[in-house]
Design a protein that fits this description.
The complex is a heterodimer. Chain A is mainly alpha-helical. Helix content of chain A is about 75%, strand content about 0%. Chain A has eleven helices and no strands. The relative contact order of chain A is 0.13. By secondary structure, chain B is mostly helical. In chain B, about 80% of the residues lie in helices and about 0% in strands. Chain B contains 13 helices and two strands; from the N terminus they run αββαααααααααααα. In chain B, strands 1-2 form a two-stranded antiparallel sheet. In chain B, helix 2 packs across helix 12 (about 240-265) and helix 3 (about 50-80) packs parallel to helix 7 (about 140-165). The longest helix of chain B is centred in the first third of the chain and has 33 residues, at about 50-80. Chain B is globular and about 75 Å long. The chains are: A mainly alpha, B mainly alpha. At the A-B interface, helix 1, helix 3, helix 4, helix 5 and helix 6 of A face helix 1, helix 3, helix 4, helix 5 and helix 7 of B.
Amino acid sequence: MADRRENPIPGLLYKLFVFGFGTFAVIYLVAPIVIALTMSFTSGQTLKYPPEGFSLRWYEALLDPVRSATEHAAAFNSLKIAGLAVLGSLLFAVPATIGMSRMRKGTVGAIEPLLLSPLVLPSLVYGLAALIVANFVGLQPSLWLTVAGHVVVFGPLMYRAASVVAQGLNPSLAEASTVMGASWFTTLRRVTLPLLMPGILAGAFLVFIQSLDNVSISLFLADAQTTVLPLRMFALIEESLDVRVAAISGILIGLTLVVMLVARRVLAPRQA
Amino acid sequence: MKAGGFPYVIPMLLLSVAFFATPLAVLVGYSFTGSEGPTLANYGHFFGDAFNFRVLVNTARLGLETVLATTLLGVPIALLYWHSGKTARQVIIFLTLIPMLTSNVVRTFAWIVILGRQGPISEALLGLGLIGRPMSLMFTELGLVMAMCQIDLPLIILPLVAILSRTPVQYTEAAQVSGAGPWRIFVTVLIPLMLPGLLAGWILVFASTSSSFVTQAVIGGARNVYVPQLIYREVGTLFDWPLASAIAVVLLLSTGCLLVAMTMISRHRRLVGHG
């Protein structure tokens, strides 16, 4: 070990920097989530923080089927779009993952950037491009157009998540199944898909979350009847700073936490 | 089984070409469209207008400020991760993923509460006697950068942590045994190690700031306009689609150039340090 007679001050400063400033940064990262969550239990009319009292009144207002009919419709639309986007991503991205795992590296390297390119493009730009083309071919903005947009832009997330798993698979497993006389469908159903499942689940989770949260595609491709939840929240914030937004936030944060804990349970043992 | 995979790829390939590449090509073509055939007028209009040009500059500045702020907070978190044990490392990742997976609009809403006149910042400064009356950071660039920094922070933490989790402790131990102090190790060992992650994070953060429509609209307010709102305004209220396309192409090119530049830097062996 080095001689320990050197000046101790830089070491202390470094510790202060890492543990002091690092902890501050972690708090900065997480505090807004805690603040949004606690804000949702306010008993007040305004966004005063810290709240003067706590109640469930904004959750009650949000669950009220008459008062919050628009919000319920928006949440339903968003869930429907997200569910369909996951389904669409499965149909396109999972076969692509399987196909790519059976192709030569050079070909994969040539095709993959095209498949992944929607991930790096600002989705607002894509929303506008899709709107222009839809208009050219005579399609009006609709729920289905929004779903298509989400599949195009978020499908690559499914592809990427599933290929990470596919790359680690031993190709002999599928070969063994074929050699033993299983049809390609049986091999797919009994060998390939179960092995890919962790990646597919992770991909489905990512696509669902991204779709649920997306504003910039829905902004251009959704029609007036198909208000989605994030855009409805945006409207509530812009119009009146309605405290029901806090209750919606509370529910969304709660859902995120639940899904993360479930995902840890389902996916963690494989990483160990 | 090295051949025969291609048919499986065809559906997604067609989807990418027909519904992604084609619309983009049309968008670019549309940006050169005028009432009398092909024209550069849309670009001329965009760059000729002092207001539009200022919006472009403001957007680039907002992106760079956010990149700087996320780096200042992200690197200490990465170092904290590096010096932590196994459990603490898992906690840090979990705490990074929670905000990342929480809706963007929810995070924006949280910042409305924080930055507002009745929010914790204003209350704290009042309590300390630093300000005489309630103050709001809403509709200011400072408030917007504070919010965007928190919203984009996971995008820089995760690439850094991905690198550090693969790095053996022996790297810094060797430097320590050779007599290097902690700051020297930070500058000569850890920063070069983290550089590819930093570059990846910078690209993600900058790209994210160029499309975070809601945060900019809500927290920036009507006085601070950025390119995404400009595009939406041209489409939604002014119905000038060719001009909107031209602005979108400019946005695309400016982020694209940055992307290419960053990728080239990250492949520069001597600069990144693994040759």
